[in-house]
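User: quick one, sequence for these tokens?
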């Protein structure tokens, strides 16, 4: 795990019995250490987002949405490495033929938006954003191919808009959502695309937030 991982994620991982090996904060650091462990321990490397089976598994989220909703005009999905939106976009376009899939990042972590605009993968410096799941520096190769084919647009929100969304979730809906998990919903809450009279779905992708940070933000 990166050295800058949130304490709540570290503690939860340990509680499941895992042995944590820390590394630097870039994805290259993680791949390097993972490669060493793979060789030393004869392990199988499972990529966190740029893997066809991981992508397929994440697409089952939309199957669950389809079981609840017969029609949907838009689906907003957070984008980190691109695995989640890749799987969701494939499933959404199959199950809702006329749907538009929108990726959402925070402004400091807009590598996918830049890549989407210029049709090639853009790599950025480690972004400084409260959405720790978006601190990847570039989307995956497989993921990007799928994003170009199935995603309609990629937009951004500010960290402050994400905090507004987290506050709404906590105070009005009584659920705790981590920053990355609230990013896609923040784009709807602040109506980034000026939509009206549309049936909109959003992926809320996690609740791992440090209590001290949550208190500070709220």
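Assistant:
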């Amino acid at each position: 795990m990166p050295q800058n991982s949130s304490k709540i994620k570290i503690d939860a991982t340990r509680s499941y019995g895992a042995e944590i090996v820390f590394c630097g904060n870039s994805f290259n650091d993680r791949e390097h250490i993972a490669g060493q462990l793979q060789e030393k321990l004869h392990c199988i490397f499972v990529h966190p987002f740029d893997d066809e089976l991981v992508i397929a598994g994440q697409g089952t989220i939309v199957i669950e949405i389809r079981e609840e909703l017969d029609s949907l005009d838009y689906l907003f999905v957070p984008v980190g490495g691109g695995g989640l939106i890749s799987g969701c976009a494939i499933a959404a376009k199959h199950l809702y033929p006329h749907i538009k899939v929108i990726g959402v990042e925070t402004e400091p972590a807009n590598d996918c938006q830049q890549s989407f605009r210029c049709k090639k993968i853009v790599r950025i410096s480690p972004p400084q954003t409260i959405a720790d799941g978006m601190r990847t520096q570039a989307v995956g190769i497989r993921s990007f191919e799928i994003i170009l084919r199935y995603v309609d647009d990629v937009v951004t929100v500010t960290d402050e808009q994400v905090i507004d969304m987290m506050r709404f979730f906590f105070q009005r809906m009584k659920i705790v959502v981590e920053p990355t998990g609230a990013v896609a919903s923040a784009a709807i809450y602040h109506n980034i695309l000026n939509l009206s009279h549309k049936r909109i779905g959003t992926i809320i992708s996690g609740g791992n937030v440090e209590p001290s940070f949550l208190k500070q933000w709220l």
